[in-house]
Queue: 2 jobs
Job 1
Amino acid sequence: MLTVHWGCATDVGRVRRVNEDSLFTSPGLFAVADGMGGHAAGEVASRLVIEGLADLTGLLGPGGPQVEDLLAMVASINDRILATGRDRPDQAGLGTTLSGIAVTSIEGKAHWAVFNVGDSRVYRYSESTLRQLTVDHSAVQELIEAGEITEEDARHHPLRHVVTRSLGTDPAPEPDVALYEAVPGERFLVCSDGLTNELRDTEIAQVLQVSADPQAAAEELVRRANQAGGRDNSTVIVLDLATIDGAPPAEGS
Ligand code: MG
């Protein structure tokens, strides 16, 4: 049995009036969605992601979602968002990021499937080192890769909120998916850009180091994002892999 303990927190922040982020937690799948669009459309889009994940994970077998299941989920949820945009002209153009991590079994061994569309991120914290596992689908990431700006420039760049892949587009976006073998003792962070635009990785790592309890860590990260300005909604899931004892995953807390 693979045992995962997790905690989560989300907050509207200190500037926005609506929290357009949503989060999903289940024993085998953890995800954050950061919605966008006027007239509360972002809130609707990110909620459609969570409802879609809840429906679709209920249909999965005991081995957890396979990579093809994750791809099918993204396509299916994308269709739902497009349909809502067609039915509700006032919410046309609604969209959302979707990033997360799923427990999956490959040849009997527990693995993490890390996936993202957009600029919500997944990090791994292990042996006192924080590593970003996802690559943002964003305009500033493209500028960084082109060598035109630095990561520090990106924090203040006028295009910093522009994502280059999101759900709610036709054709459907292609998520990035990467697989990692699960290792007991490792900790993961799934978060929206409201956290990472306010806190540097060194401060995030410090909180993950000090707060042993995942719920306390999640709440402290959101609190610090607000303390640093809270210019966006911030959403955090912290999950700890406690034990692996054979196959298949299930247990949670
Ligand atoms: Mg955001």
Job 2
Amino acid sequence: MENLGYVDFHCHVDLYPNYSELVHECERLAIRTLAVTNAPCVWKQNRELLKNCKYVRPALGLHPELAHEREKELSLFAEYLKETRYIGEVGLDDAPQNRSSMVIQRRVFREILKLSANEGGKILSIHSRGASKEVIEDLEKNFTKGSGQCVLHWFSGSKKEASLALELGCYFSINMKMINSKRGLDLVKTLPPERILTESDGPFIVIRNEPSTPKDVSIVIEQLASLWSINKGKAARQIQENLRRLLL
Ligand code: MN
């Protein structure tokens, strides 16, 4: 078996038409994949479909863009919380098209942070588009050190905000789009290598007109390797080591 030692810490596995093929590929290639989900109502089916996986783990989520439609599912979220260590995708999205639901988004996200902190030991994959400052403030207030671990997915805030997040102990999962933009790359350069994970954010990120898949984190690892002036294998091991530490 080919073990590439890759980590994809944010992939919407259940949104691919060829779900089981994709899961088999992750298992075959030993890609440690966090299968984030967007609503508590799909938790059970994801848990069932992934129950025999060694490398793919489901996460319980409530996506900020669905908060206004799915707020009622917070009771399901609370019910399923005990079944998993992994929470995501959760967070806030203050892009213009989602601004009208910010009041509901805040209520949902804070409740999720509160529930997760109370349970303890959870690992969260957090969305923060247009709302990085507020997400970090929320983490500071409602998710103090020791409450669990946070991974900021596709972080697009400022360097100052990133450094606040680092102080709070956050990790960052980096995707192809980030590393291919000047602003994203500039930010990644300021992050310590030991706080970085990789992600595909598939199927939303597209590569050569096809939805990207977990093995495409290869491209991110290559770029990180060049940034860190080490070879690709060593960069992959760094990411794997980071994941191992996060899961301790
Ligand atoms: Mn996502």
